[in-house]
Amino acid sequence: MPIIDSKTGKVKKDYTIEELVKKAREMRAYSMIALTAASSGHTGGILSIMDITAALYLKKIRHDPKNPEWEDRDRVFWSTGHKAPALYVALGEAGYFPVEEVVKLRKLWSGFEGHPNRLRLPGVELSAGSLGQGLGVAVGCALNAKLEEKNYRVYCINGDGELDEGSIWESIMCAAHYKLDNLISIVDRNGLQIDGPTEKIMRLEFIIDKWRAFGWNTIEIDGHNMKEILAALDNAEKVKGKPTVIIAKTTKGKGVSYAENVVGYHGIAPKDGRSGKESLDKALEDIKDPKFTRGKVDKLLKIADDYQREVDKKIEILMLKFSKNYWWNSTDKMKVKMDATRNGFGRAIEKLGDDKKVVALGADITSSIRMSKFYLNHPERKNRFFSMGIAEANMTLVASGLAKEKKIPFIGSYGVFITGRNWDQLRTTVCYNNFNVKVADAHGGISVGQDGATHQALEEITNICYLPNIHMAVPCDSVETEKATQAIASINGPCVVRYAREATPVITSDDTPYKFGLANVIRYRSEREDFMEAFEIKLSTGYTSEDEDLSIIACGPMVTEAMRAAYILKEEYGVETRILNVHTVKPIDREAIVKAAEETGIIITAEEHQVGGFGNIVAGVIAKGKRYNAPLLMDMVGIEDRFGESGAPWDLMKVFGLTAEHIAKRAKELYDKKRET
Questions:
Q1: What is the distance between the alpha carbons of residues 519 and 584, in angstroms, rounded to a whole number?
Q2: What is the rounded distance in angstroms from the CA atom of residue 343 to the CA atom of residue 500?
Q3: What is the 3-state secondary structure (H, E, C) of 198-246?
Q4: How far is Cα 49 from Cα 194, in angstroms, rounded to an integer?
Q5: pLDDT confidence of 642, banded at 50, 70, 90?
Q6: Domain boundaries in the chain?
Q7: Of 315, 304, 236, whose CA–CA distance to 656 is shortest?
Q8: Cβ atoms within 10 Å of 332's Cβ, excluding its own
Q9: Which residues pair with 245 in a beta bridge?
Q10: How many angstroms separate the Cα of 100 from the Cα of each of 20, 26, 50, 91, 316?
């Protein structure tokens, strides 16, 4: 049934097959414009699923855009949340909001987040993005329909790479067990995932036989043939006593010549921006929708630009002002180089690969987290690299087996997945057995920016540090990440190194002192042309108090913000700050922390994490070790009990109050309070 009025039951709009084909073309064009405006996104899968999306939202499912919470509507769950732009254009075309709004994709506060957020946008059934979870939710909704004797149907969009996840197969088994004939899974079988072809990463075939063996009705179609799509959806409704899976064979990047069947276009926008061989203009030329004239495209991109300018104004209002601009590289002095901390991990894992005991395991973002550096320039190491696909829990257990046999396995993925999805495996198998597994906790904090809350790791310091036997490093820049990675390789036992994705200031060098388990003390001396040269860094064991006014204790990228805060405090107020770079969070440098508390009397912790994850660990160290012969004032800077957002990483730093300006303000407030008492 097409789009209807939920109050009267009358059809609002119906489409012929020919009209649906045209709409799918139009939706592809809108998506490509949105991706270009965002300069990021997942082009390949968005284009491969578009024909099915048009069929579902414009022809098949019962829904009413004027009444998104209509109790009897059909539900569609996007388990493959990275294909969200396809969902957004479908909702726009259906009438949930003006379709032109989708060009605000991945921009702060727009609602069109990198992965769908049901709390921000009407018509979105599930906040998703962590693969392997949507089908289980769909099973629950289908069960509810049976319990309540409702006629609504439940659909779930799954990716083929997503089928690597064990949780998917638990849901498949459950749905068949409960004979959920009101449930349909649609698998976008485009044959590619981030690391390459699905059959090379983790073999899926014979995929039809597997679903059938689990008790599902199976249908295989051409996912770009509108007649076949609609016929399959109709036939699925007629099946009784078992759920249906539609395996839709598609082409990744369908409709855009330079993106078709290209692995690299899984996770990027048009490389050339507006014009060029791999550009928006070329994509629209391929799509051939006459609506999208240059004038229309210009207007759509202007919507995105105007929106971003308004966002920039709001962010600027949030920023604290001082006598001059202290922002990174904003003046001729205090210049700093930027480099992604993940590059430090890449350099380290390449060197560590010389040891034949070291093996590496990938989880489908091998290049992004720089794990690929293990073998890229060393083809002879390929036999020591194992692709696990999108299956973090299994990867952790496989690594445990390798560690048991005296290998030194490195595993890694997005922080939320490698320390969250498989926390039980880390706890019970890795830590309880004290296996020598090394975890690359990549893309930590809000550094993934536009990907949004599902991909922003803001909880893993807490999750990891309370596990017995484990060690955790949270380095401040790419140079320190290289040192930390090499350090954990030499420790016998479970270790985690947490690092960011985006470029951050480089404030250490090869000559900067570093010892795992010991904090560094950093002191601002005077303004210089080079930011690094304005500071002196010593190991905590070699530092003698200079009677500083306060201490900022930080880890990870917040160390650089703490340094800039010290710069602000000295230049604006003459306040002297001791900075502790706690690059090793477990085991933590207790002596350095207690000394800072006793000698300065003011402590501010700074973390790119849920506030208190790191701060409460520091507070516990102080409470246990401090001699209470002097008062102590303490505050914490971090994410204030909320999920992340889609937006540029530096914008998010400002919005969440994580910048040096915010740290300096909090520090000055405590400093003034201490002087009053």
A1: 7
A2: 10
A3: HHHHCCCCCHHHHHHHCCCEEEEEECCCHHHHHHHHHHHHHCCCCCEEE
A4: 16
A5: very high
A6: 7-287, 338-505, 520-676
A7: 315
A8: 7
A9: 185, 218
A10: 19, 12, 17, 11, 26
Cα 541 to chain centroid, rounded: 37
Banded pLDDT at 628 (limits 50, 70, 90): confident
Residues 46/53, Cβ–Cβ less than 8 Å = no
Torsions phi, psi of 427, nearest 5?
-65, -55
**CA 313/CA 307 separation, integer angstroms:** 10
Tokens of 470: 């484990």
DSSP character for 519?
A: P
Question: Taking residues 83-94, what's their average pLDDT?
Answer: 98
Name the β-bridge partners of 219: 246
Answer whether 413's CB lies under 8 Å from 369's CB: yes
For 122-147, give the secondary structure using H, E and C.
CCCCCCCCCCCCHHHHHHHHHHHHHH
Q: How far apart are CA 110 and CA 104, in angstroms?
A: 6
CA-to-CA separations, 294 to 92, 278, 467, in angstroms, rounded: 21, 17, 57
Residues in the chain: 677
Token pair 């392997």 is at which residue? 132
3-state helix, strand, coil in the chain (%, to 5): 45, 15, 40
Residue 410 predicted with pLDDT over 70: yes
User: Is the CATH code 1.10.10.10 the one for domain 7-287?
Assistant: no
Q: Among 3.30.70.270, 3.90.226.10, 3.40.630.30, 3.40.50.920, name the CATH number for the domain at 520-676.
A: 3.40.50.920
Whether pLDDT at 290 is above 70: yes
Q: Do domains 7-287 and 520-676 have the same CATH topology?
A: yes
CA distance 101 to 111: 10
Give the helix/strand (H/E) hosting 55.
helix 50-55
Provide mean pLDDT across the span 420-425.
95
CA-to-CA distance for 520 and 512, rounded, in angstroms? 9
Nearest CA to 564 out of 334, 339, 317 is that of 334
Please give the pLDDT value at position 629: 78
Residue 347 neighbours by CB distance under 10 Å: 18
Say if residue 449's pLDDT is above 80. Answer: yes
Q: Max Cα separation, the chain?
A: 81
DSSP 445: B
Contact status, residue 114 vs residue 78, Cβ threshold 8 Å: no
Question: Contact, 592 vs 599, CB < 8 A?
Answer: no
**Whole-number percent of the chain with pLDDT over 90:** 97
CATH class of 338-505: alpha beta
CB count within 10 Å of CB 131 equals 27
Q: For the packed helices 17-38 and 294-318, what is the interaxial angle rounded to 10 degrees?
A: 40
Whether the pLDDT of residue 82 is over 80: the answer is: yes
Please give the structure tokens belonging to residue 140: 């629950």
Give the integer Cα–Cα distance in Å for 352 and 556. Answer: 22
Whole-number Å distance between alpha carbons of 628 and 143: 59
The DSSP code for 467 is S
What is the model's pLDDT at position 202? 94
Query: Mean pLDDT for the chain?
Result: 96
- As a whole number, mean pLDDT of residues 616-624 equals 96
Helix ranges restricted to H, 544-659: 558-573, 590-600, 615-625, 649-655
**Residue 1, pLDDT score:** 59
Q: What's the pLDDT score for residue 626?
A: 80
